[in-house]
């Protein structure tokens, strides 16, 4: 065990549309759909602690997926997270906390798990907690991910829109992911699969936004404020839709600012979850993996 | 078609070990193995041109995989590439040129292909040209990729070592990938599969370096100069191995400099191939994807 801190960064993720695919096995359960990962994200710093605790921007909080990740790794860690993103507003902050904790704690305690194993643990923790279905998988990839299958890395296939762009967003309030996902999701899933089919035919940013607006309308998730802002952006010649699930509008490029709003501004994030520090312990600290390791030519 | 330039960046990729898996279908052919992607890479700028031509650092060159990518996309482009990496020395520059061309040209000509489709085209172009078997897939992912299966994105599975690190490298000369891959690869493939099995049990950077050294020795690819540098790094307490395929030594952290060498220095690159510019055409430039696109709430 290395007792230095290890820091990981996980991009935020705005889902544009999705379908829900429950399964008794949480590594198979999840969602299909598409979204954008964001340069605004969550930074997670892990340090060893006798008692596990999590702070977000300095305030102690309980994040069930984080506790589940630490249980799965059988370790006790102080998780200090910071973020510019609003909570509960459709940015995948719970997934980012779970995934960042998995990456940082794995290295801090030299658990020697692979990226796929850590993503699987964080994804299952989110699914079991009911806080998300696809954010973790998308946040592990980065870019503009298309989730072709539900579930973790052992079961899903991913594709992506090969583009990057400025993103603007504006949050009016939060929506409970748990309450939407625990309700009747048949209509939502039908709409999500239709949007996925549309995007698969033409994987561009513009078609992603169209398919997302179509989903928001068909799944009947729009609030009046969100609908109004999307219409304003369209009237100004831009492209916007609703973040799933939050009372949040996101737009390509300068869509919201050109419509007269004062949005937060970021970009799509090219990389997935990344360990930032403590990443390269000297060989003497991590120890030779095998007795015949040294100078073995 | 947008006649602005589009620029893409593709990280370099040093393969530590691999096994060769030929197939008549180039999207299934490829290698299994592992490597590190690098912040030193290839920047590709594509502009429309009546006659396709490719320059690297200002000098016109013929890169067969690039020509094959342009053929597959049925377009004619001026590819201007720049790189800090040495050529033919095990850094995946041909794969980077092919993949960067695919990403940039797709956007330049609004071809609307997905990331997986572009990776498949570039991977097949490399395989058909005999210039590489696994670089493109790794360069599309970024990080420290483990290629569990051969082939393009429709066929392979990837994992990764969840870490980042400083990398040092030193090139003594080039080796011909084509001549090694066209020879008897049975011994090489046996050694590569054994190294993959070792890494899968313990996916850490240190074990990756051990498995890579083991491969270089078993596959009998070490030159005297490479062997000497690796031994010097080991004697100084560091971890180094040989880039496949080039007369190049790479080391974790400060391995080569602490052994008295004057290496190039970079880091692992968190993201895969990325479009850098021209990524967000205004909606009016790309056009509505469908007649019912605008303000369709």
Describe what you observe in this structure.
Two copies of one chain form a homodimer. Chain A is an alpha+beta fold. Helices cover 35% and strands 26% of the residues of chain A. Chain A is built from ten helices and twelve strands. In chain A, a hairpin with a 4-residue loop joins strand 9 and strand 10. The first copy, chain A, is globular. The two termini of chain A are 29 Å apart. Chains A and B meet through helix 2, helix 3, helix 7, helix 8 and strand 12 of A and helix 2, helix 3, helix 7, helix 8 and strand 12 of B.
Q: Which labels suit this protein?
A:
2 domains, globular, 4-stranded antiparallel β-sheet, Alpha-Beta Plaits, 297 residues, 8-stranded mixed β-sheet, 10 helices, alpha+beta, homodimer, disordered C terminus
**Overall body shape of chain A:** globular
Low-confidence stretches of chain A: 279-296
User: Termini distance of chain A?
Assistant: 29 Å
The CATH class designation of the largest domain in chain A is Alpha Beta
Number of helices of chain A: 10
Structural class of chain A: alpha+beta
- Please give the oligomerization state of what you see: homodimer
Total count of domains of chain A? 2
Mean pLDDT across every amino acid position of chain A: 91
CATH topology-level fold name of the largest domain in chain A: Ribosomal Protein S5, domain 2
Summarize the helix and strand pattern of chain A as letters.
EEEEHEHHHEEEHHHHEEHEEH
DSSP strand (E) fraction of chain A? 25-35%
Helix content of chain A: 25-40%
> What is the CATH architecture descriptor of the largest domain in chain A?
2-Layer Sandwich
Described by strand count, sense and barrel closure, the largest sheet of chain A is:
8 strands, mixed
Count of DSSP strands of chain A: 12
User: Which protein chains are joined by the largest interface, and how many residues does each one contribute?
Assistant: A-B, 67 and 67 residues
Radius of gyration of chain A: 19 Å
